[in-house]
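Q: Okay, next protein. This is Aspartate ammonia-lyase from Corallococcus coralloides. I've checked the sequence twice, so it should be correct. Can you predict the 3D structure?
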Amino acid sequence: MRVVPSVLESVTVHAEGALCTRAFVLSPENGHLPAQVRVDGLPLALRTGSLRARVVEGPSDLLVRDLKPTFDVRMPSESELPAEQHALEAAEATLAAVHGRLERVRAEIAALRGLTPTWPAARKGQPPREAPLASMLSLTGFVEAELAELQAQELDLARQHRDATNELELRRRRVQELSSARSVDRTRLFRAALLTLSGPIAANADARLVLEYAVAGARWVPTYDLRLPRTLEEGTLRMRAAVVQRTGEDWTGVRLAVSTASLERRAEVPELKSLRIGRSQPAPARSGWREPAPGLEELFAGYDALHVARPEPVLPKPQPPPMPVMQEGAYEQEKAYKESASFGGAPGAPPSVSAPPPPAPMAAAPKSSGAFLGAARPSRNVTGGVQAQSMPSARGGGGMDRLRSKKRAVVEEDLDDAPMADEAMDEEEGGAGDELRSAAGLEPADRLFDYDSLTLAPAASQAQRGRLRPRSALVSQAMLSITSVNVQVEVVRLEAQAFVIAESVNSVAPPTWAVPPHDSARHFDARFDAEAVADVPSDGAWHTVPMLTVPLVLKAEYVCVPSVEPRVFRTVRLDNASPHPLLAGPVDVTLGDEFLMTSPMPTLGPGETQRLGLGVEEALQVARNTRFDEASGGMFGNSTVLTHHVSVEVANHLSRAANIAISERISAVPDSQKDIKVEEAEVAPPWQKPTPLPGEAAVEGERVWRVSVPAGEKRSMKATWVVKLPASKMLNGGNRRT
């Protein structure tokens, strides 16, 4: 088996997760390609069920016959470790050396401080001895001199210890800032893939293969960059993708693409069944299913001859227990005890009743193809002295017993026997075995067609050997691949930790005004390819990648509603002329050479038009004046005439002409009020009813002036409308309007 290096070529980031593509080249040796190859260095957060491999270039009949996931343990050399790791180890060694010297100096100081003269005990009847003053002075001088030198060393070592601690903390922070793909561990666990090739292995040319796999821990949100000139007449819109990933491998120099589709959604071609008119015909058998071959047991005759099963010991037949002597008034207590202890109640017998001795264990039941294997072992006793086999189960409690038996089968047996126990439990619960399916003529279950999850029963299982059956759900794919790892590594813990780290990207706060793609994609899915290769490190931070330049038709327009706000706002109408949808997200607007603002942009489908606000234009000034007249009308003065006069003046202080849309609103009459009329008397220049853009709400009674004001000039607009209503009525909020 040859281990081949691979290169990560392309990555497609979906709404959650990513699809990676690696490529590698096989060169023939002695005129033959290897029949088995191994690709190492795959991320630990890889989803094993997503592995796919195919031949891109090479012999026409060369195929990938088998693909299995496994693990790869790497012990990097000193040269492969990053420089920050070496600096960290050097800082740790320096701190350890300084700490050891400082502790020795402090121990010597403590020992010197303990050097004090001792006085012998006075003896009774003898005069006290003369004190050795010379020796005491010599000892005191020696202690002072040594303490002065050691204390100077302690001060210097304490300073070195403080500096070494700060240096170690600095190195640790720099190591933590490294990408998660550049781990500094001495031993690392990776995923690997084993490929088995079939076809014309004898070849003289190279073969190029690609390996695809899905990983968790990647997200993206769309962002945009809009560059406009000062005149707002033309501009360019560039789409960018903010990508965050913690998959465990850095994406360096890859062809990046982003998609709004869900990576977990199954996209399978439906199987259409034909409908025939006429006589009833049996449904055709599903392809891919075969009954067990006849004479299957004869294939294992040699195995049975070498592995003769030991006869199970025959246990004595249980004898009925002697009837206990019931005391007076104990019948009701005994009945309550049986209902509580035997039928799932609280264990424990009443103190006045003597519990019967437990019966002898029952003989083990013979194994059969339709029986649960866990029933062949003696059951454990439960509280209350009642055996599990003789204890009647509570209503609805059979599933828990089977679950406990299934758990014991996985814990007590090895990995080869655990799937068989699971299959036997499934048959006991109602899933018929091979013999029952063929006898009853039932259609096989769907999971029997999932060949990737099927496993062959061991030869030791006489009931299931030679047959494929679904793998137990309790035995994970990580446990099945541990056999290829020769180093003691906590595979399950490290794999679970890798998935937890990968899923942590879902809690990373997105940029301001960013919208997830699955929330803004409406009812379509789209894919965007980057124009150049990109680098996205696996550090859990957002990285902006330029994707493509979107062709747009831009039309600048100034908008003003003087009755609400006497200021003019810059807007740009965006017409999406590209075949790509523009998802909702933040857009950075650059006006000329200066950054203007960041604004939210709604979803813009192909051919749609939206308005993007760009803030206030201070060089345009608007003044609005109103006048209101109220009079009586009609032949007998039984109506009220309300006349509204509005005049608007716009001054343009820009160096160019400006197209301004000025909105005004006249009174709106409900359809139920037939006796109220609104008439437009005089409007100069003429105005019109606006047509709202997609996503904008229509305003009842709105009128718009669209005028072009030359540079340095002013324009005036006037409008008069009359509201006629009965004298007994008045406008909502009062007749007087401004």
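A: Here is a summary of the prediction. The CA atoms of residues 169 and 664 lie 66 Å apart. Residues 368-376+394-462 form one domain.
Q: Noted. On to the next one.
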